Structures are given as C-alpha cells and as structure tokens.
Amino acid sequence: MTVVNCREIPGQPGAYVLVIDVARPTRIDRPAGPRFVLPKGRYIYGGSAYGPGGIAARVRRHLKRGKSERWHVDRLTNRFGVLMVIALPGGLECPVMAAALAWPGVFVPAPGFGASDCRACPAHLARLPDALDFGRLDENPFVKRIIETSGASGAVIWRR
Asked: Closest Cα to residue 16, out of 116, 85, 115?
C-alpha cells in the first residue's frame, strides 16, 4: 500500500525505515564516537517507535527540518530530508537491518550509526547499491524482503 499523506502513517508501535538520498559526501560528527564521511548515495535507516504516538509520531519528527539533533539520523534528515518511509506496525528494526545488509551491494558506511543501544546490529544505517530502483514499489524485491522479514502486520509506504 502506498500512502500519499504522511498523516496516514499508523500510530501503532513498531519499526520504520527511512530512505534518505545523501546528495554529497557528508561528514557526520557523533558526540560519543568517531567521525565518518558518508559517500553520496541512497541510504536506509531502520528505527523503532514503541513510545507514545508510535510510528506516526516518530516519523513526523524525522520529516521536520531544523529539529534538535537527538538521534544520529537527525544529522542526515536535517540536511537531506526523507525520500520515503516504510512503516512496519508491530515490526522490529533489527530483522529489517539484517535483511537489508544481506542484500547484494548493501554495506555499513559508519559502524554503530543509529545502533548505540543495539548489540545485534553493526549499524542501523546502510548504504544501498546505486542500481537499486525504488520506482515500482509493488514489484521491488528489496522492499518486499524488508516488509516480509520485519514481522509487521500491514506495512504502509509513504514517499515524497
């Protein structure tokens, strides 16, 4: 299902994936970790939203520009925005990241990014191969794999 309005993203708890196009090589400074330079390209970030307002509240925050940089990914979303969101009600972020990292050509450019509280994942940010096309989401095997492995009940996709 594709959602046209971000207000239709579900408020249930679960996981989500942000798709972010990094338009130029970008240095990321982290207060408690090494600096990284992310190459230009398309990235996914896997997060969870099990607090008040669920996925909808967390995604609305990520879509804002100029917000305080509370999470690692805020450093990217403030600069480049969000191209697409996959909301995964009831889903878990770690299986999503494991499935993404098993895809040919996907790699972790910044170990630990977005996963400071996770012991299972090398990072919750991954660089996607340039050839991965998000044009036809209903036929996209990468997106299908993400949804299938998340454990979600009823994924919703929003794109800018």
From this structure: 85
